[in-house]
Structure formats: structure tokens, C-alpha cells
Amino acid sequence: MEHYTLSNGVPIPAVGFGTWQMPDNETGYDAIRYALDCGFRHIDTAQGYGNEGTVGKAVRDSGIPRSEIFLTSKLDNPNHGYQNTLSSFARTLELLRTDYVDLFLIHWPNPLQFRSTWQQTNAETWQAFESLYAAGKIRAIGISNFRTHHLDALLSTAKIMPAVNQIRLCPGDSQDALVACCRSHGILPEAYSPLGTGQVLTVPAITEIAAKYGKSPAQICIRWSLQNGFLPLPKSVTPSRIRENLDVFDFTLSAADMQTITGLTGCAGAAKDPDTVPW
Ligand code: A2P
């Protein structure tokens, strides 16, 4: 599997298996096992998804050496702050049945519960991330749903630059200014909802391009993501789709088709504003 290299030198498989909205039951378990069987070696979960235990069990049962699987989790909103980060991270390790994670992210920059003090709270949270990183419990640390002003505030006290910013990126929602800001700091943009939670898949321009390449609309979206230098995290519980979502390395979209897809503004809604989300 192709990979990106994070700013601290850690390799990360170029397509990850997203688990947002993946049930914490047999269906979710089977999907993760199937994804691993198909060759996925990068699984993206979060404390807030409520399925870390299922991810941990599936990874363990797969028999694939832990060192060959890249595991990401994210700090849930109520767990911000130095001590809360440390204690909730310990629980994440237990649920994932591992003694380290490859990547740990601050899930949201401005949780409702800390909205009046988010700058200070993020600074303290990041200190905990830095100490877990120094202790070898996390191989790379990063952020999610951060906009430029959240990143600027974090960088005023951070000692370690975030390695990634995981944001919503799909055809029609390419967040150009934020992506440029991330790149200027060497931060890899990870794409959640790379299929626009499925909404992009029926857009005529996408289905036409898919027919031309003999690929599915989902494969076109994932390829668009990769050719933009994003790291896509498609989610599916359907075996045929899981397999297809990794089969994206044998074709290249032309510059003209990339441009057409990038130009599909508004076809799949927009990323939520982290300063006003009700959580
Ligand atoms: P399902 O999980 O039922 O297979 P995103 O990754 O942008 O959040 O999109 C996830 C949605 O897209 C889910 O509803 C998922 O359905 C669907 N999906 C994922 N992969 C494919 C695919 N290859 N073809 C069609 N739909 C897909």
C-alpha cells in the first residue's frame, strides 16, 4: 500500500478505513476484519465513535502484527484538559488492546463545554499530547476540525507541530485556504467523509467521469483526494465497497477531470463550523 510520510518521519498508509458511524457490534467488527483482509492497514477511530473496543478486538483477532497496522484515535470533547487527556488516553489504550497508538488527534478545537476557554484548554491538552508523545505512547500527534485561527492559537504555545489536520474534504468541499495553511506548516490534510457521506456519488459529473475510467464514483472521489495530496478515510460496512475503496492505485485522473471535480462546489454540503457546533 502506498503511504505518506508525516513531518516526524513516521510513514502512514495513504488510504485509511474510516469508522465514524460504524456500529459497535458484529456488523462493525465484521467490516473491520474484512477491511484488514482486503489489505487496509490504517484504521481511523475516535473515543467519540464509541467503537474503539470493536476496533481493538478486530485488530487483535486478525492476527496481523500490531506493528503492521496504523491506528488512529481522537480525544473526545469532554476529555479536554491535561489530566483528562491522560486518563482518557489510558482508557483508549485498554479498549484498543494496545500499548501505543500511531496517531492521536484533538477531535474538535472548541467543545461546547470549554467554549469560553478553548485557547487555554487546547494549550493544556496539547501539553498532555506532547508528554504522551515523548513517552512513546503515541507515534504522531495531530488535530481535527481545526480552522486557521484554532491552529494559530495552538502554535503560540505548542512545542511540537501537529502532524495532521483531519477535516471534511470531498469533491465540492475542498477547503482550499485551510489546506494551504496546513501545507505551509508541513501538516498533512486527512480527508474525512471523502465521499461526502455518499452524497457525491450520484452527482452526474462524477458518474460520467467514473464511466469514462471504468471505475466507480467512490473510486473517483478517493483518487481525487489522493491526487490532491489528501489522505482519504472512506467508511463502509459493505464488503464489496470496502474492497473497491482500496482499489484506487491503478489509474490516474487527468488534470482536466481533477479540475472538473474540484469545481463541483456545493454538491455535498459544507464542513460544520467548529465554533458553533452544539457539542
Ligand atoms: P455503507 O457503509 O452502507 O457501505 P464517507 O466515507 O464519505 O463518510 O461515506 C460513507 C457512506 O458512503 C456510507 O453511507 C457508505 O455506505 C457509503 N459508501 C462507502 N463506500 C462506498 C462505495 N464504494 N460505493 C457506494 N457507497 C459507498
Name the descriptors.
single chain; two-stranded antiparallel sheet; TIM Barrel; globular; 279 residues; alpha/beta; binds adenosine-2'-5'-diphosphate
First-residue to last-residue Cα separation:
36 Å
Largest sheet: 8 strands, parallel
Quantity of strands, as a count:
10
- Structural class by SSE content: alpha/beta
CATH architecture classification: Alpha-Beta Barrel
Q: Supply the number of helical segments.
A: 10
Enumerate the distinct ligands.
adenosine-2'-5'-diphosphate
Radius of gyration: 18 Å
Q: Mean of residue pLDDT?
A: 97
Physical arrangement of strands within the biggest beta sheet? 3-4-5-6-7-8-9-10
| CATH structural class | Alpha Beta
Low-confidence stretches: none
Shape: globular
What's the domain count? 1
**CATH evolutionary superfamily:** NADP-dependent oxidoreductase domain
CATH topology: TIM Barrel
Order of helices and strands: EEEHEHEHEHEHEHEHHEHH
Helix percent band: 25-40%
Strand content: 15-25%
Helix and strand arrangement:
Layout: E1 3-5, E2 11-13, E3 17-18, H1 26-38, E4 42-44, H2 52-62, E5 70-75, H3 82-96, E6 101-106, H4 118-134, E7 138-144, H5 148-155, E8 164-168, H6 176-184, E9 188-192, H7 204-213, H8 217-227, E10 231-233, H9 239-246, H10 255-262
Parallel strand pairs: 3-4, 4-5, 5-6, 6-7, 7-8, 8-9, 9-10
Antiparallel strand pairs: 1-2
The structure holds adenosine-2'-5'-diphosphate.
Residues 18, 193-198, 201, 216, 218, 234-238, 241, 244-245 line the site of adenosine-2'-5'-diphosphate.
